[in-house]
TrEMBL record:
Positions of transmembrane segments: none
Protein name (record): LemA protein
Record's keyword terms, sorted: Membrane, Transmembrane, Transmembrane helix
Organism in which the protein naturally occurs: Pararhizobium capsulatum DSM 1112
Superkingdom field: Bacteria
Lineage of origin: Bacteria, Pseudomonadati, Pseudomonadota, Alphaproteobacteria, Hyphomicrobiales
């Protein structure tokens, strides 16, 4: 009878661990979905931004084509490719920074209402991407701790649970502190 009670307790504990791993994986996937939504919103604004800038900075064609190419590359990556998507989106963010730097060289563009609204929308989306990224990385951390910790690691391996990659900046230039000169 005692052996049966101990066996039942062990089975219940294993079920508890398994369910915890499932929950952590689902939270991570939901967090990734949040990043994906924000990246899609940003990608949807880029064509409008490009059209607005074209009228004022026609000879900046190379920069504008680079942004379109980077956007298309980022959108073409598979949904689960976190590291690839992080790298592609980092490059896209850098290219978008170049467009906003163009506004300084073109006062008419800087004064354009449509450009200002698009710039404000993109800044808001960038902020939301950062919040989504922090949430995803927290969910990935929680899953990774469960996958690597004893005794849940005994359940994780046989049932196919694996560590989740973090959504992080891979370009060292993006990590650098910008220099500000007055």
């Amino acid at each position: 009878m005692i052996g049966l009670a101990i066996g039942a307790a062990v089975i219940l504990y294993l079920i508890f661990i398994y369910n915890g791993l499932v929950k952590a994986r689902q939270v991570k996937e939901e967090a990734w979905s949040g990043i994906d939504v924000q990246l899609k919103r940003r990608a949807d604004l880029i064509p409008n931004l490009i059209e607005t800038v074209k009228g004022y900075a026609a000879h900046e064609k190379g920069t504008l084509e680079e942004i379109v190419e980077l956007r298309n590359k980022a959108q073409a990556l598979p949904t689960g490719d976190v590291a690839g998507r992080a790298q592609a989106e980092g490059m896209l963010s850098q290219a978008l920074g170049k467009v906003f730097a163009l506004a300084e060289a073109y006062p008419d563009l800087k004064a354009n209402q449509n450009f200002s609204e698009l710039q404000q929308s993109l800044e808001t989306i960038e902020s939301e991407i950062q919040m989504s990224r922090r949430y995803y990385n927290g969910a990935a951390r929680d899953l990774n701790v469960k996958v690597e910790s004893f005794p849940s690691n005994l359940i994780a391996g046989p049932f196919g649970f694996s560590k989740a990659p973090f959504f992080e900046i891979t370009n060292e230039a993006d990590r650098a502190v910008p220099s500000v000169k007055f």
